[in-house]
Amino acid sequence: ERTVQRTRVWCDERFNFQATFLQCLAKHVPNIYSAEMDPLLEKQEEMVQAAILYPLECYLFGEDPDIFLEKLQQSGTSQLCGKVFKGGETTYSCRDCAVDPTCVLCMDCFQNSIHKNHRYKMHSSTGGGFCDCGDTEAWKAGPLCTKHEPGASGSAKENSECQLNEEIMEHSRRVFPSVIKYIVDMLIWEEEKELPPELTTREKVDSYYCVLFNDEHHSYDHVIYSLQRALGCELGEAQLHTTAIDKEGRRAVKAGHYASCQEAKEEIKRHSENVSQRPLHVEVLHADVMAHQKFALRLGSWLNKLMSYSSDFRQIFCQICLKEEAGSEKPCFISKLMLWDAKLHKGARKVLHELIFSSFFMEMEYKKLFAVEFVKYYKALQKEYISDDHDRVLSVTALSVQMFTVPTLARHLIEEQNVITIITETLLEVLPEYLDKNDKFNFQGYSQDKLNRVYAVIYDLRYVLVSKPTLWTDRLRERFLDGFVSFLRILTCMQGMEEIKRQIGQHIEVDPDWEAAIAIQMQLKNILLMFQEWCACDEELLLKAYRECHKAVMRCSTNGRSREKTVFHLCGHTLESRPYRVSADPVSIHLPLSRTLAGLHVRLSKTGTISRLHEFVSPEEFQVELLIEYPLRCLVLVAQVAAEMWRRNGLSLISQVFYYQDVKCREEMYDKDIIMLQIGASLMDPNQFLLLILQRYELADAFKKIKPTKDQDLIKQCNVLIEEMLQILIYVVGERYVPGVSNVTKEDVIMREIIHLLCIEPMAHSAITKSLPENENNETGLENVIDKVATFKKPGVSGHGVYELKDECLKEFNMFFYHYTKTQHSKAEHTQKKRRKQENRDEALPPPPPPDFSPAFSNVVRILNCDVMMHILRTILQRAVELETHLWTEAMIQMVLHLLSLGLLEEKQQLQTSPEEEVTFDFYHKATRMGSSALNAVSVLTLLERLKRVPQLEAQKDTVNWILQMFDTVKRLREKSSLTTVAATSGSEATKGDESTQDKEKAERKRKAEAARLHRQKIMAQMSALQRNFIETHKLLYENTLEAQGKEDAIMEEESMSSTIDCSKIALGPKRGPSVAEKEVLTCILCQEEQEVKLESAAMVLSACVQKSTALTQNRSRILELSGDTLDPLFMHPDLPCGTHTGSCGHVMHAACWQKYFEAMQLNFRQRLHVEQIFDLENGEYLCPLCKSLCNTVIPIVPLQAQKINSEDAEAVAQILSLARWLEIIIVRISGYSVKNAEENLPAFTNKGMGNSALEFHSILSFGVQSSVKYSSSIKEMLILFATTIYRVGLKVAPNEADYRIPMMTWSTCAFTIQCIENLLETEGKPLFGSLQNRQHSGLKALVQFAAAQRTTSPQVLIQKHLVRLLGVLLPNFKAEDTPSLLEVDMFHVLVGVVLSFPSLYWEDAVDLQPSSISSAYNHLYLFHLTTLAHITQIVVSSATESPTVQSSDNSEEARSAESFCREACQYTSGCFGQDIPGWFVWDCVKKGIMPYLRSAALFFHYLLGVSPPEELLQVSEEGQFKALCSYLSLPTNLFLLFQEYWDTVNPLLQRWCTDPVVLSSLKGKSIAIRYPRKRNSLIELPEDYSCLLNQASQFRCPRSSDDEQKHPVLCLFCGAMLCSQNTCCQELVNGEELGACTSHALQCGAGVCMFLKIRECKVVLIEGKTRGCLYPAPYLDEYGETDPGLKRGNPLHLCRERYRKLHLLWQQHCIIEEIARSQETNQIFFGFNWQLL
Ligand SMILES: [Zn+2]
Ligand SMILES: [Zn+2]
Ligand SMILES: [Zn+2]
Ligand SMILES: [Zn+2]
Ligand SMILES: [Zn+2]
Ligand SMILES: [Zn+2]
Ligand SMILES: [Zn+2]
């Protein structure tokens, strides 16, 4: 009702809406936004809605806004998606369909588009762009996703989209202008104290804010510091302010009277100026001004929301924004805002840009009008941007890409707005400060930031040119040419810029800045190419552009005109030229004009338009010598740099030369210079051309006469120059793979590039891509051709896939390929020669026949057979033949041979295609002619024959032979037509002669090959002998499992001779087999000395690493205790939540050697920087001296006590010692102790029902005792050291050698480590015995023996106490208060504990006794049987809640036994335990569930007793394994028989177990017990397609904060939790330390060790504790078998199962810490990273 009233008020005064609206604002806005310092945001929003927005909407819509907007929403949405990207959001581009790479889709649209199945790329948005779904100009196909397709949203009404009725339109036209005007007025409001009069209503109060603005100059810390100092506020408050300023762009930091705010302003300025030279931007604003500005932005987002509802709203809005006041020069609203953009703060800009996106950019027609406005003010906007200091994404100029890349819009802007000219003029206007006195650019002392901003303008040029027009109008032609001419002006400023002069004598003092010029060159590369492409679209245009470019080049070619021409003679030819020396005169590598001209020239040639060139450039004007002059100088400069003549000019020149030829620049630098020389060679007289080359290379004298110089440096220099020149000549004649130079296609060119790359070595896809030039769409064209020339080889578990060249492409190999660097050249040559050798072929690598020149270039070949060339070739050959060693090099000869080959190939080709008399190319003739009339004159051919005898040129012999054959071929071709008969005879003779020499050579080669083979064999034999020795000496290190197994076999064979096989493979009870205890001789890896492991000797130790582990946990939600101060680790919960794992790398040392090494290492590391991040020295960490694994302790190696029992004696004992009797004895023994040590307070127990108690407390000793083992003091010391480490690491407590929990931890790590290994063997599908890695085997052996021996270093009373507590689980009537119920304890841990502690019962005050072998055998047997009974009961009870899903009629003996067991158990559970569960099902559960326990027990007893296991356990076989395990462990295969056998003893036990409340509650289904077998942990399932993960990440919301800031979602691979990493919002305070989300998660999830996937970056992170971590490649590969860290390449990625499995093993083998340490040792970069905050 209230609203209706308000609305009526506005309606009544409908003729003055604006006044009413402003009155309303004037009244409410200052009140609503009064509490700026500490605003209640929700309250504010509520008030805004109620007082202003709701009434406004009511008026606008004429009905309830919610209902109206709902209706509007229903009626359909726009066809454009228009989603604006935040920074970090993933965008997708289709390489098949996108018009250019700036066309992108949001994740939603992409997933619903056809492009999902195309070749797409994924990228991270830098923010500010928007989704192009629906823009038909952006996509060649599939412009709409299914979501934005018309009619897709259910309503079939196409384009009937929410036609607003006239009334609402009318209202909009009335409301929008006022709203927009208010927004514009307030945003550009500059008065600090006053408001516009129409908003000033109330009495002005003295209430001001001191407002701080953000900039990119001051760091976070600077601002915090300045605020703390200036305002005297707390750190927290200053941080709060700073974060807000960074996010929003401005914030009130103080409220108060004008004077106090003014004072604060000055203070802040002063302090900030002190820390960073520049003051912060601070303003004092009146509270009302602040309030209205705030509300203006709120209105802006209100409009923004409204825009999404209806096209009509958008159109009305745009019309009003574009409306110019009649007769006024003032810009329209939107232009005003654009022009003000650089002055707005961040928050305001965001609102403005979003509004532009949601209105103008959603309506094509208005986008065009907006673009026109944008171009109108383009210069001003860019200049503002360049002097602004905000990021580009925050500037309105960044919107250019949205307009300029739309082809029709770009064309319109060129035609109507002359945008090319405007952009180039802008460039010229923003760069003048870099112009020198000659009007050339010079970027010395440039500002990187400012130039980066200039690049944005260059980019705009690229956007405008990115799509070539298909339709040319006269106007377009004219405007484009205007633009081109304007662009030439920029190139003119670059032509010859940053000239350099060779430094002589002294080295330059400072390297000049060269990066800026090269960077601009890189930026311009594609623009230059695009201009050339555009020109080539149209014949007329091309010629005109050529004329303009030619003019521009000529204008710049004035250098040296003042000098007198000189004359140069050689071989009867003369060259007149103006003197110029690269080595003495200034030279520049920047020649974009010349190179553009070269580019246009080849396009003229390609299109054939060159025939009309004379109409546009007269031959007199053309002056080819002048055109090639500058490019030639540049090439000479490169040669001189190679000859080290420019050494003193420093590194900057080397870098420039590098980029000149590098793939990033070469297309518009080096390549074009070669083309320019080809143009010269095609148009000049060949002799003149070569004379010019000789002169510019400063080699005129070198070919005239031999100067008797003695200066070795000068000779060397000259030789390098000759090589460089010959190389360039080879390129000029031979390099024809450019469309226009010859008739090749772009594909041919790329194929050739790839072939030559792969001739060096097989390469990865990304490596090839990086070596190929990219076009304007960032494409190399690689995919189209790669399969034609190469085959893909998949990668293994590491490394990457590579492409290998197909054999048929090898013939294309050209050793002098012009894009080879020197190293690539020699590598390729080496590879190819090696290959030919392996194939037993000759080593000649002649050039492949090049394609024919196109007509315009056909004259180039004439330089091959001209006089000067012959002179050059002859001179060099002669020097070689005459052995003037210092005047020639092998490389030179190679090049000469190459040139000869080219000449012969050319002549051969011509002879084959045209009649002999027409072929004027007479290379053969020239080469066989004498050089002069002198007496000693010889021909090239003769010299070549002689060359074969030059010993230094042995390697070139095959090539020389090939050329000689070519001579012959050409000769025959020549003679064939004229003297057929003569030619035939002489030809055949020649062939014969040839053949015989060929045969001879073949034989020779064969002999050599044979010799080489023998030599190789010898070497191999030596090597393997060495290897054998090595293995011998390092036996322990290299013993592989096979060998180990073989050894065991051998021993077993020995054994089987003396005793029967049956009893030798049983570990427990009276039939126990003998221990296989070999004499162990180990070599210390430190001192290399051997020592036998003996009880009485000094200790030997294994390096080891103890760590907490959750690898086996069944319950990740359980909260782990971070500190074990109060933990009692005696009983392990069956969930196995967290255990202590002991691993070893298997390397042995003397304890003494290790201690020395350890101390030295600690000392050394304490001096190294950052070492605390690799090693936790306090915790005893060190690297294994041999394999560099991370270790934190050592395991002492305790020899196994070989035991063998007399089976007859044992059988005899069996008669008396039944289980019942044995139990009786033990109980008596324990009660005896308890009586004796009453003060020890052992648990009281009753022994009622245990029959006669006539037993004496010493009876236990009567079945056999022996004296205890004595360990050397050194072994004892190590036993204590290691046990203490386990205790310290496992419980995370301070070391304490006397703590009562040390033995418990010892047993626990022993049991846990065995369980881990059992688990690992099962998951890897390996047999239980014989397949362990050597390090696992020796580690486990040492660990079990240690665990058995550790007891002797603790007080026996303590051990007894622990034993009694453990037995509480197993003995009837023996329960103590803290005895856990059957369902709360892991039986394997109990087994290990009782077995290892049991000998303590034999301990007597005076003598240290231990059970004899026979006693032990019984003890082990009964203890094991008891735990097994308990475990079976556990399994049955925990599987009771389940019922079978299938029926079975199994009525085996086992099933029947199970059934009868269940009946018994049923009575104790008062019916909870279903009697109806079929026996076969129970048996099935037990048989499956007990396996891990039996396997672990077998491992344990094997390593404890050394009894060989049955053969079946050395293989993988399900059924055989069960039987073998039962036999090894003395169990009946029908396990329920155990219950029957011991029924009397077990009955009370079963009763106790089953009646436990915990058990009953589980049986009633009230609590869930762990099921057996336990699930085997694996890393979480990952999706096959990586974009699914990105999708998940995009939906990720931080659980703690709601802002739209960019998040770093990280996935825990252990549990699948998605975390918000590296962000303060999710930091956790743990023990007083701030930990990042990952680090704190890892403490719980992986007990400190964890594995994460950083989703946005596609990297795996391993972390350990708070200080260590490393990156690891993610298990995702692209189709080329490569990973993509950081998604830099953006190819689609797919899960690689093998690699993921490798990660899984890394975890389950407990090697994560090791991997981190290794990586940190090698990659020192991560030292700076604060892992704690991950
Ligand atoms: Zn979209
Ligand atoms: Zn879409
Ligand atoms: Zn596509
Ligand atoms: Zn040693
Ligand atoms: Zn090692
Ligand atoms: Zn986790
Ligand atoms: Zn967060």
From TrEMBL:
PROSITE patterns: ZF_UBR (PS51157). Ubiquitin ligase protein which is a component of the N-end rule pathway. Recognizes and binds to proteins bearing specific N-terminal residues that are destabilizing according to the N-end rule, leading to their ubiquitination and subsequent degradation. This is E3 ubiquitin-protein ligase. A zinc finger (UBR-type) spans 79-150. Residues 991-1009 have a biased composition (Basic and acidic residues). Pfam families: ClpS, PRT6_C, WHD_UBR1, zf-UBR. GO terms for cellular component: cytosol; proteasome complex; ubiquitin ligase complex. Pathway: Protein modification; protein ubiquitination. The keyword Transferase applies. Keywords: Acetylation, Cytoplasm, Metal-binding, Phosphoprotein, Transferase, Ubl conjugation pathway, Zinc, Zinc-finger. It comes from Strigops habroptila.
